[in-house]
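Predict the 3D structure for this chain.
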Amino acid sequence: MRTFFRIAWRNVRRNIRRSSLTVLIIAFGLGTLIISNALYDGYHEKMISNIVQIFIGHIQIHAAGFHANPSVEKCFDGSVADIIPHDRHIIAFARRVRFQALASTSTNSGAVTAIGIEPEKERTVTIIEKSVVSGRYFDKSAGDANECLAGEQLMFNLQLRLGEKLVLISQGIDGSMAADAFRIVGVCRTGNPDIDRSFVWIPIRAAQRLLNYGNKISEIALLCDRADRVEDVQAKIKARIDKADMEVLNWKEAAPDILQLVELDLAMQTILTAIIAAIVALAVMNTMLMAIQERYTEFGIMAAIGAKPRQIIGMVVSESFFLGLIGIVAGLIISMLGFLYFGTHGVNLASFSEGVAKFICLKTVVYPVVKVKQVVLSCLFVLASSTFIALLPAVRAVRLDAVQAIRHI
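Done. Predicted structure below.
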């Protein structure tokens, strides 16, 4: 059998044109598969990152029941020393006071979600500062100043302008009416329509003063360095708190609708990958079929001089295997060139980013994310396709009568 392996390798080198065509098809197919998967993974990770950094964070800590019913009574002491563990995967956290309020002007009013934030810490967890499109973000000396940021659509709905005052009316922790006027210093455009039309941000000390909170807060939002470490960090936090009085939610639990969107996105990626893989397999199969069928005469002569069917089949499969290996090397080179280009320039989604932003707040440029597992699986798939697809025509060839095969045109 070793002799037939050597013959198979010589056959690969003998017909350079045929071998080059096959290798080119395999390489192009593999390159397309790897690059498309990397771009889709980049798109997917960017989507999750943007959603998390718009508002949610990777982990949220609340008083028990706050997520289901966010009332002002559900609050807890603002000290984080006993809550946040020292973990290298926690890169930032921010305390907040979140409450429902009525935003009122001299002519209009509407329901809003008001968020009291620590300006310096919030900028490390979310992208609120970067979303300011007009005016400015809170400065370091904001303290409990009566300043606010408002969503762009909310400004339009309430017919407000930068620099005007907005009155927030809510209920204090003691049940009394709470109201105060805040001057709008910045307008935010996050890309999320729900946030842009109903969110107002104020300094956390101003929110605590408004609700008579003292040092109490509504929630703590944490950002982790890696999405796959979120559940580990969540478990550590749960071990440090009183589970009867507190709740710790990861982003999937805090926003199940977003989780459904992510799962739908993964399903779409699977379907797209399957379609591309099928196209690659068909292209390889077509090339291999043509290459083998034109060699029926050669197989007939081999059978006539005593070669056994399994030896001929083994030789053909070995040729396909060698071509597959060469094609994989060439495909990996194509993939590397693709990563160099797209890693620098990315893929511009400007033509439809406005529609996408309504759901996932995606920025217009996506860069590839290379996952070793995806690359290995793609290589194995292409190698298996190029090798085993050759079985069908090879079996058909050895079943032909030797004389018929020699006369085959």
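The longest helix spans residues 16-56.
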